[in-house]
Amino acid sequence: MQGVKRPSFGSFSEIAEFYPAFPPYSRRLLQVLVDQVKHLTGSPVFGDIGAGTGAIAYTLADMGLAGYAIEPESQMVAVGQRRSPTYPAISWINAPGENTTLADESLDWVCYSLSFHLTNAAEALRESMRILRPRGFFTITHVLADLETDPFQLEIENLIRDMAPALRRSRTALIGQMGTYEALLNQYPGLGNCIFLATSQAIPMSEERYVNYWRGRHDIPSQVSSELWNSILQMIGETFRRRQPVNLRFRSAAWHAQRV
Q: pTM above the 0.85 mark?
């Protein structure tokens, strides 16, 4: 009997259904960015690149902006488009950040939402400069579990490490890259004045949503057997029921630069 094919590290098509369970980006942080962009124009057009299922794109639409959700994974687009009828200001494009298919100087704001680290950075920046209007803004955003202030989520991480000691976590490499973003954007030709913003917020989550949030990970199931992955998910659910956390803390961060 043929075994179940293990998903690939960095592949998101198998987990698209679970992406809506991910925590929202801080509305407070996004409002600071929106206010800056609106100094450029009262009706900015944005591109949320690596949009996933539209977490930032739909939030920005709720805040009165119009733009594009640009996502290379067709299954992510399919899940994200389910909300499209409610958000006519958002247009979906199935394309990578390195080749968005958008016209030259068509956007006031390019925003990478937890996706820039998955691109070829040089090509992604070159494409962003092509589609940005003069004085437009370029932003890299992330939202991650705040392991420094949330003992419950730190406990979950430690329990996973006990169950699978050899895991290569995507978070580790991502945090390393995050430390390079400010210098990268300040030194890139045509960009500058980079600011860094971050905030931690408490988000209520049910057990079902939290387990689905973990189901939306690509790194762990790509490295362990399906049996071990199911055991990890079961452990997460059981630990949640035992601890009954009221809120879980997530940290939103943004590196925000302007075309000069």
A: yes
CB 70 within 8 A of CB 48: yes
Report residue 178 as tokens: 């995050």
Nearest Cα residue to 257 out of 24, 98, 29, 37: 37
CA-based R_g, the chain, Å: 19
Looking at this protein, which amino acid is placed at residue 73?
E
User: Distance between CA atoms of 210 and 238, rounded to whole angstroms?
Assistant: 11
Cα 54 to Cα 22, 68, 121, 173, 185: the distances in Å are 11, 10, 21, 24, 24
Q: Which residues pair with 140 in a beta bridge?
A: 112, 255
pLDDT digits 0-9 by tens, 203-241 = 999 999 999 999 999 899 999 999 999 999 999 999 999
3-state secondary structure of 139: strand
Edge to edge, the sheet with strand 107-113 lists 90-93, 66-70, 45-49, 107-113, 132-145, 248-259, 191-203
Q: What angle do CA 246, 157, 141 make, to 5 degrees?
A: 80
| Cβ neighbour number for residue 150 with a 10 Å cutoff | 20
